[in-house]
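Appendix C. Worked example: Tryptophan synthase beta chain
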Amino acid sequence: MVIQGLRAPQTEDILPDKWYNILPDLPEPLPPPRNPDGSIVSPKELEAIFPRSLVEQEISTERWIEIPEELRTIYLELGRPTPLLRARRLEEALGTPAKIYFKYEGVLPTGSHKINTALAQAYYNKLEGTKRLTTETGAGQWGSALALAGAMFGLKVRVYMVRVSYEQKPYRRIVMQTYGAEVVPSPSPYTEAGRRILEQDPDNPGSLGIAISEAIEDALKNPDTKYSLGSVLNHVLLHQTIIGLEAKRQLEALGEYPDVVIGAVGGGSNYAGLAYPFIYDRLRGKSETRFIAVEPRAAPSMTRGEYRYDFGDTAGMTPLLKMHTIGHRFVPPPIHAGGLRYHGVAPTLSILVNNGIVEPVAYRQTEIFEAATFFARTEGIIPAPESAHAVKAAIDAALEAKKRNEKITILFNLSGHGLLDLKGYQDYLEGKLRDAEPEKIDLSYLPKLE
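Step 2, the predicted output written as structure tokens:
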């Protein structure tokens, strides 16, 4: 039996041949990255850690950037386009008149959307002669993706994994090692940044900001090495827009268009990946779609942070980016959604929040695991803790539609499965899960740049 509108087509032509770059369509110019003295960072300076082709994508004002055919072929081989599914059982359980669709990136080999940019970054690095890549990872989705991409393109990979996730998620570490990557807990004794932190606090749980510092320091000290970033920067976000571009074509085949688009936010890559192609329509006056971005209360950069220049890492090795931030020295509580434990947000997403195009919300850890468990029992998929934030917001939007008796269409990004994140579910089911959020956020130490 075929149920109309349950599953969208997944033919090869659904995969786009170009990425979408939001820079030329932003409602205001993107503030340039700066050095601590206020000077603007040049593209040449960025080439110290990134290959030139990615730096060119980072600053490009072209709306559409072609996906190389070799890379597009690999996307197809690894499972793109990914499914767009309708959550009918969830709709029925909620008693909502809303239609709920989700783009499911968990079918990809490493279990999340991260492989979309990992392959692109490895591809361009290989073309320019890079031999080795360093990176950071929180929950391990990004590290797993880059480990696989490195294996596919013959690049060595070292992953600095946030210590609390290294301990909470040993199977993520094993996945990376299986693909051939070296994985070290961060802060580590391998870098000056890591050693300084361990001297002050031997039990430091780590953070994405610390891990980024270590990975960049490593790359700068080794001439055959470049750094790969899993989120935040423009080139990373544009690689992910294949998610939303596919979803648009799939929804069109079903005769649908979303009234609400939802995704979780750590740095912004999975959110931008789904939402930016739809935001393109709204910026051109072709839709009135709502865009909801979800973050944890433990790292509330959009809902409680300030829009100002800050470093992307803890040690202050990156350029200063103008973004929503809770401060690069902030170490978030050790929540299970390790990929969302970041102090800042992508500068392009920050502009969209400032202009009221994207609405940020924040949830507690217990709330998102409750929603994720409900989703698993209705739809059969166990979401990653990061993706569970989007699930919670989608449920809330559906219940709001129920109260108003509105027949809206909701689309959210189920950016990864949670089958390697079961410690969080165990803690939730055993009543051991605890909420945590900062009482006070001090940003007085940040540089005052405009």
